[in-house]
UniProtKB/TrEMBL annotation:
It comes from Pedobacter kyungheensis. InterPro entries: Glycoamylase-like_cons_dom (IPR019282), UCP028431 (IPR016883). Keywords: Signal. It holds the Pfam family Glycoamylase. PROSITE patterns: PROKAR_LIPOPROTEIN (PS51257). It comes from the Bacteria. Residues 1-22 form the signal peptide. Residues 219-437 form the Glycoamylase-like domain. This is Periplasmic beta-glucosidase.
């Protein structure tokens, strides 16, 4: 076909326009980071939730659509892990995406497409008796070893995904034909996890790891109390690979040795926080298991879990206000200790391991427990510290005023709980989705839990 000048001009302009659109798309999400100081609490909370959600939307690993282990603004990754997917972060991210769909941050169509993409990736990724590894190569779905012998299934991280799969199933199971297919996909992935295998030969305890190369050499039987309660609840709830109640009571609860009594800053505790010597652990212990598992009114013979989590948060709050080590910036507007980046590497910050590092996810993900105290932190970080700690995917992972240390880095396992717990505080969405699942209700009943969500 012969082109005259007009055709040529039109064709060239079209190419330029298409190229510009492609470049615009490539540049992706670029929010206005101007700090606005006149926002209401609701507006500020929505801004934090929406911007943090983008970690799992715009910032997702592109091939899989799943949650990255980390994102560094400077694009420097010493471990060459920019495309590494974290299984736990992916589970948290799936729940964050559900909240984003429900709030209209993305369209229902785009949201469902992304969920399908991630579930298809999980369906093809390496699994070890149904469990995914701690890290996965995003481009291939192959296991990326977390350690030399940690190159197989990770049942704890897998449980964080299972929690999300149950929520997805509940959200879509009564929808359109396409939505029912998505729900079925989530249900099949969850039911494919062989919790019973991870008893390591039928013991009454669950093991964290198994590797086809190293078998059980990691040798990590999981006992409470820590962040892993959800794993035992799901193991008891599984309709395909369930475990008896004795696995919970003898393994997790250590034949009752999990139960104790102590106080931190006047706040009572009945659970033994492993190795903390009458102290409490990092605040992610009050978050990870409770993104779907609603602690409100949740009780068993060992604890009242709502009271426990509220007191855990208040103990960390009061410790930071007291500030016994005299770190710069600590106070009622600036508190929160949990596992995160630290001035020297990575640390599970808590009162016994305090290096002057504040992790925003600690107070923000605790907002259902301490709404007033958490809002003070959100407003202080946003209005007063501003872009020192605030970026395109919400608040950066951690900072230290003492060391004048403000890294522009994110960790997926810290971003996810902020989105989900803000949503649970605002609407209870993920709690409702998870707690209404019949298998979960049967599992909780089997283990002797009480909850307002359990059908009589």
């Amino acid at each position: 076909m012969k082109l005259n000048f007009q055709h040529f001009l039109f064709f060239s302009l079209t190419l330029i326009t298409l190229s510009a659109c492609a470049q615009g798309k490539k540049s992706g999400y670029n929010p206005d980071l101007t700090i606005r100081k006149n926002l209401t609490d609701e507006q500020l909370l929505d801004l934090v939730q929406k911007q943090t959600f983008q970690y799992f939307w715009d910032g997702a690993e592109p091939t899989s659509g799943a949650g990255r282990e980390r994102y560094h603004v400077d694009n420097i990754y010493p471990e060459n892990d920019k495309s590494t997917v974290a299984t736990g972060a992916t589970g948290f991210g799936l729940m964050a995406i559900l909240s984003g769909i429900d709030r209209g941050y993305v369209t229902k169509k785009d949201g469902a497409e992304r969920l399908n993409k991630i579930l298809d990736f999980l369906g093809k990724a390496d699994r070890f008796h149904g469990a995914w590894s701690h890290w996965i190569y995003g481009e291939t779905g192959k296991v990326r070893p977390f350690g030399r012998k940690d190159n197989g299934g990770d049942l704890v991280e897998t449980s964080f995904v299972a929690q999300a799969l149950i929520c997805i199933n509940t959200y879509y199971k009564n929808g359109t034909t396409a939505e029912k297919a998505l729900a079925k996909k989530a249900d099949e992935l969850w039911k494919g996890i062989d919790f019973n295998w991870y008893r390591n030969g039928g013991q009454n305890v669950l093991y964290w790891h198994w590797s086809p190369e190293y078998q059980w050499e990691m040798n990590f039987p999981v006992k409470g109390y820590n962040e892993c309660l959800i794993m035992y609840v799901l193991a008891a709830s599984s309709p395909t690979h369930t475990v008896p109640a004795e696995v919970y009571h003898q393994g997790w609860a250590r034949n009752g040795e999990i139960k104790t009594n102590f106080e931190v800053y006047g706040h009572p505790f009945t659970l033994d926080y492993q190795g903390q010597k009458n102290s409490v652990g990092p605040l992610f212990w009050a978050h990870y298991s409770y993104l779907g598992l609603n602690p409100k009114g949740l009780k068993d013979r060992y604890a009242n879990y709502w009271e426990n989590n509220v007191n855990h948060t208040l103990a960390i709050h009061d410790y930071c206000v007291a500030n016994p080590k005299g770190f710069k910036g600590y106070g009622v507007n600036n508190w929160g200790l949990t596992a995160s980046y630290s001035v020297k590497g990575y640390a599970a910050h808590n009162p016994q391991e305090d290096f002057g590092v504040i992790s925003p996810t600690a107070a923000i993900s605790s907002i259902p427990y301490t709404p007033k105290e958490s809002m003070k932190v959100i407003r202080h970080l946003y209005e007063n510290l501003g872009t020192k700690v605030w970026g395109k995917y919400g608040f950066y992972d951690a900072f230290s005023e003492t060391d004048n240390w403000y890294p522009q880095k994110y960790l997926g396992i810290d971003q996810g709980p902020m989105v989900v717990m803000i949503e649970n505080y605002r609407s209870g969405l993920l709690w409702k989705l998870f707690m209404s699942n019949e298998d979960v209700q049967k599992g909780l009943t089997k283990l002797g839990f009480e909850s307002p969500a359990l059908k009589k």
